[in-house]
Amino acid sequence: MGSKNKLKRFKENETFTNVFQPTRDELVNSNFNLKGNWQKAVFKNNNPLVLELGCGKGEYSVALAQKYPNKNFIGIDIKGARFWRGAKTAIEDEIENVAFLRTQIELIDYAFAENEVDEIWITFPDPQIKYKRTKHRMTNATFLKRYKTILKPEGVVNLKTDSEFMHGYTLGLLHGAGHEVLYANHNVYKQEGSPEEVTSIQTYYESQYLEQNKPITYIRFKIKG
């Protein structure tokens, strides 16, 4: 994407009522007034709050919002020029139960209060296969601790990925640490009984993976305290 196009999207994001872009300082110094107030201030209801981490273009967040009008969705990514697409679609189609937050996933517990979130989706994250990249894997122990803080006691995490490495790494870590695996499937489109929200919504890249016969894996789990 050309830098001109990127700048145009950044500018447009600033005008969108469904896009929130706090600075790092704002978050770290507890000056972010939406923390603990997302439902009331943004969505004007008490419906369950669901996050998609590393939402890319935001297509999954938007599709979930359309499918589940009684839940609120927030797509989170540091790349605003990407989720511009999802934010714009939501505005054009008047989908009011989805918003976008531009921040790093590492700062998630600064953007949301304790027990504020009902559910988390992690869709097709970079598996960070090299050992020295372990700290960047979005299901490592440090990240799980952050998620646990903001999730309600019964909150769940969903991991959908085309990376068998990421699937295996996460399953091993969950079992090893005594977390509760509610569902695990290494090929959701081949197995009967896969959850509908997993197979009925596909990202652009996911449909490409499927054309290449790449298995899509899925885990649903609860993080133990």
TrEMBL record:
<comment type="pathway">
    <text>tRNA modification; N(7)-methylguanine-tRNA biosynthesis.</text>
</comment>
<feature type="binding site">
    <location>
        <position position="130"/>
    </location>
    <ligand>
        <name>substrate</name>
    </ligand>
</feature>
<dbReference type="InterPro" id="IPR055361">
    <property type="entry name" value="tRNA_methyltr_TrmB_bact"/>
</dbReference>
<feature type="binding site">
    <location>
        <begin position="203"/>
        <end position="206"/>
    </location>
    <ligand>
        <name>substrate</name>
    </ligand>
</feature>
<dbReference type="GO" id="GO:0008176">
    <property type="term" value="F:tRNA (guanine(46)-N7)-methyltransferase activity"/>
</dbReference>
<keyword id="KW-0949">S-adenosyl-L-methionine</keyword>
<feature type="binding site">
    <location>
        <position position="52"/>
    </location>
    <ligand>
        <name>S-adenosyl-L-methionine</name>
    </ligand>
</feature>
<dbReference type="Pfam" id="PF02390">
    <property type="entry name" value="Methyltransf_4"/>
</dbReference>
<feature type="binding site">
    <location>
        <position position="77"/>
    </location>
    <ligand>
        <name>S-adenosyl-L-methionine</name>
    </ligand>
</feature>
<dbReference type="InterPro" id="IPR029063">
    <property type="entry name" value="SAM-dependent_MTases_sf"/>
</dbReference>
<comment type="similarity">
    <text>Belongs to the class I-like SAM-binding methyltransferase superfamily. TrmB family.</text>
</comment>
<feature type="binding site">
    <location>
        <position position="162"/>
    </location>
    <ligand>
        <name>substrate</name>
    </ligand>
</feature>
<keyword id="KW-0819">tRNA processing</keyword>
<keyword id="KW-0489">Methyltransferase</keyword>
<dbReference type="InterPro" id="IPR003358">
    <property type="entry name" value="tRNA_(Gua-N-7)_MeTrfase_Trmb"/>
</dbReference>
<keyword id="KW-0808">Transferase</keyword>
<protein>
    <recommendedName>
        <fullName>tRNA (guanine-N(7)-)-methyltransferase</fullName>
        <ecNumber>2.1.1.33</ecNumber>
    </recommendedName>
</protein>
<comment type="function">
    <text>Catalyzes the formation of N(7)-methylguanine at position 46 (m7G46) in tRNA.</text>
</comment>
<feature type="binding site">
    <location>
        <position position="126"/>
    </location>
    <ligand>
        <name>S-adenosyl-L-methionine</name>
    </ligand>
</feature>
